[in-house]
UniProtKB/TrEMBL annotation:
Keywords: Iron, Metal-binding, Monooxygenase, Oxidoreductase. Belongs to the EgtB family. Its cofactor is Fe(2+). Pathway: Amino-acid biosynthesis; ergothioneine biosynthesis. Its EC number is 1.14.99.50. This is Hercynine oxygenase. The keyword Iron applies. Catalyzes the oxidative sulfurization of hercynine (N-alpha,N-alpha,N-alpha-trimethyl-L-histidine) into hercynyl-gamma-L-glutamyl-L-cysteine sulfoxide, a step in the biosynthesis pathway of ergothioneine. It catalyses: gamma-L-glutamyl-L-cysteine + hercynine + O2 = gamma-L-glutamyl-hercynylcysteine S-oxide + H2O. It is an enzyme of class 1 (oxidoreductase). Gamma-L-glutamyl-L-cysteine binds at R89, A90, E91, R92, D421, R425. SUPFAM superfamilies: C-type lectin-like, DinB/YfiT-like putative metalloenzymes.
Length: 441
């Protein structure tokens, strides 16, 4: 959503479009497999797809029908079943879940009523209503679950059921790009107080001073990461944090998730297809520990969250922080690989139109990028509308990821958007780029 945008008719249309876009994607991800596959748990790390489907409907009912619309509860007896904090993912197959057709009908019934609420309630006058925030929050929630369902599809064994066109190739100048860019030291505005659908952990805007540093122009590629693998990087304790080294030892890790040796090369499994590892794509499915180990091997480090955001938002010419690397305009297909438009990252060096003022590419889309930072609140943080969205995750247990991936919809991806996960996670669509300190002048 372009900022600011306060016309009620435009806000209603954009909220309805965001909800419909999310639901179309949900239908695509749940309609391509049969009932047995929907109710199966394809990995203990993930919910059955049918749980996500009904959970999406239940959250929409609780927030948009009951809280915003003041409507009577449709299915209060299932609230506990679809409470993500009450039931860990590994336990969800044993819950009394709605059957696939019942879950579809429930979510559709909720949506029909929500669109009626959207036409009737004022989009101002209360924090949940301001600029249609609650509707944007629920559209983002559904898209985030669509991303987790896409992860489930990646973990699922069996023939391919998803398809999409190939992403664009690298830009003609990709081979001549500098390996890194210098980001000058100084203050910049981090976070936002103006983005109408920004979530609580993105707020408020505040000034952050960042010393000068160098940042990779491009994400680390499979080819670059393969050099670490073949140099014995996984077996060399010098590069690993103790917890990461233990992860490698316990699970016998030797390469990114879904890679395996075949003959003299490497292949990977991607949504049911076995294919040679494409050396020019950003590396994917690596944990924070793997990313940090590669960076140490390369004589570099992971960027801090503030360094990542300054590179992605700060315009040295104006001194202002923009919504995206390219400016304030919404993402478009020529700027970033988002929205499951493709089922893989684009080659490194793609999307020249999405570059930052300093020439850094692919900061938005393609792969989530691990940062070195713990997930912590900004100064002046206030939980809204509930503590369990962000506050309960703050601390050193979770690391911050930035920038989104090909699996992220634009409604849930912006220069201020913060993702977080445990540093052991590999199934997520995460890669990274590296940084180094600038020598003092």
């Amino acid at each position: 959503m372009t900022v600011p945008e306060l016309d009620p008719a435009v806000l209603r249309r954009r909220a309805a479009d965001a909800l419909r876009t999310a639901r179309a994607r949900t239908h695509a991800l749940t309609g391509c497999v049969d009932g047995r596959e929907l109710t199966a748990q394809h990995s203990p790390l993930m919910s059955p797809l049918v749980w996500d489907l009904a959970h999406i409907g239940n959250q929409e009912e609780q927030w948009l029908l009951r809280t915003v619309g003041g409507r009577e509860a449709l299915r209060p007896e299932i609230d506990s079943v679809y409470d993500a904090f009450e039931h860990p993912r590994a336990e969800r197959p044993r819950l009394p879940l709605l059957a696939p057709e019942e879950a579809r009908g429930y979510a559709a019934d909720v949506r029909d009523r929500v669109l009626d609420v959207l036409e009737r309630v004022p989009l101002a006058g209360a924090p949940l209503l301001e600029a249609g925030f609650a509707f944007g929050m629920i559209a983002q929630h559904e898209q985030q679950h669509d991303e987790t369902m896409l992860i489930t599809h990646q973990l699922r064994r069996g023939p391919a059921v998803l398809s999409a066109p190939e992403p664009p190739g690298a830009a003609p100048d990709a081979a001549s790009l500098p390996a890194e860019v210098l980001v000058e030291g100084g203050p910049f505005t981090m976070g936002t107080s103006a983005e109408p659908w920004a979530l609580d952990n993105e707020r408020p805007a505040h000034t952050r001073f960042v010393p000068a540093y160098f940042l990779d122009t491009l994400p680390v590629s499979n080819g670059a990461y393969l050099r670490f693998v073949e140099d014995g990087g996984y077996a060399d304790a010098r590069w690993w944090r103790p917890a990461g080294r233990e992860q490698v030892r316990r699970h016998g890790l030797a390469a990114p998730l879904f890679w395996r040796r075949e003959g003299g090369g490497w292949v990977r499994r991607r949504f049911g297809v076995e294919e040679p590892v494409p050396l020019d794509e950003p590396v994917l499915h690596v944990s924070w520990y793997e990313a940090a180990a590669y960076a140490a091997w390369a004589g570099r480090r992971l960027p801090t969250e503030a360094e990542w955001e300054k590179a992605a938002r700060h315009d040295p010419g104006s001194g202002l922080s923009r919504r995206y690397p390219w400016g304030d305009a919404d993402p478009s297909p020529d700027r970033a690989n988002l929205g499951q438009r493709h089922l893989r990252p684009a080659p490194v060096g793609a999307y020249a139109a999405g570059a930052s003022p300093l020439g850094v590419r692919q900061l938005i889309g393609d792969v989530w990028e691990w940062t070195s930072s713990d997930f912590l609140p900004y100064p002046g943080f206030r939980a809204f509308p509930y503590r369990e969205y962000s506050e309960v995750f703050f601390g050193e247990a979770h690391k911050v990821l930035r920038g989104g991936s090909f699996a992220v919809d634009p409604v849930a991806c912006r220069g201020t958007f913060r993702n977080w996960d445990l540093p052991v996670r590999r199934q997520i669509f995460a890669g990274f780029r590296t940084a180094r300190d600038a020598e003092p002048s």
